[in-house]
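Curious: why this fold?
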Amino acid sequence: MTPRAELADSVRRVVDGEAVVPLVVRGPTFLSANAVLADVHEIFDDNKSEFEKLEGKTVRRITALLLAKDDFRMPQGGSPITLPDWFPLLPGRETFFHIADLGLAAEEKMLDCADARIEQVSKLTFELEASLVGRLSYLLGHNGTALQKFVDTAHGGPVIDCARALNDYQRNLDAVLDQWKYRPNAATDATSLISRLLKLTLNSSPKQLGAFAKIFASCFDTPGQPKLKPTFFAAMLRPAAKMDDATASWHAIMLAFYQAYQLMNGAAHAGEYPRYSVALQFANSVNLRTFLLEAREHVDSLA
């Protein structure tokens, strides 16, 4: 398998309705500004089989990732384009096509740029939190000791009434009117589950965070459960002590919540931050959203 084919396999995915479709550029293209749309159509036709892999999947948006050997040297921008009749989304319809260089010289944008997909991060964060609250509600009727241990740890000390804490978690979720605009906080008086976990993360050293993750893991029966692949961000914050698979998964979940929280903050206050590479923001978002989906499946399978 060629390096470009290997790269294509590694980035091909559908994340919450957005498909990332790798397209290998084989011939000379993008040599003239007047032929950009013709070149795009040619690349689409040459890689039709890649789009056919989306059949049967729910797709609302497509990001085509062009894998070329040569640098993209044309002005970056967009233009109307009529999609092929066989295209999996809006076939034969005119839409807007935007092309950008995701190489080392990539353009930079603010943290609230569309490429960061903050609204999808918000929705997936909400869904993961809701799944976790659901599993804790299950513990309430099946393993009160485990629930007490989990809630005590999340709150940073003994909790007298776990049922009341669960009611607080659920009440906060029920109050969210739009999951796409969900934005948790770590305020002192916040009572949602994710707020408790965020405060725990913010006030803990890497070593302490690993210890808390071990406690959370011990609250569930997870024999043979595959270890979650942490986000790149979480991998950089791994504690020195080796973690078992269940502990590593919970450590990754806690840091993913924190990562999502900080991305939402950055987008909400974008003017207070520098601009960052579109390539970096897009790749970081895909990495985090993929993890949030996998983590939700992981939590749903806990007993």
Notes: Strands lie at 13-15, 18-24, 61-67, 77-82, 94-99, 108-109, 276-277.
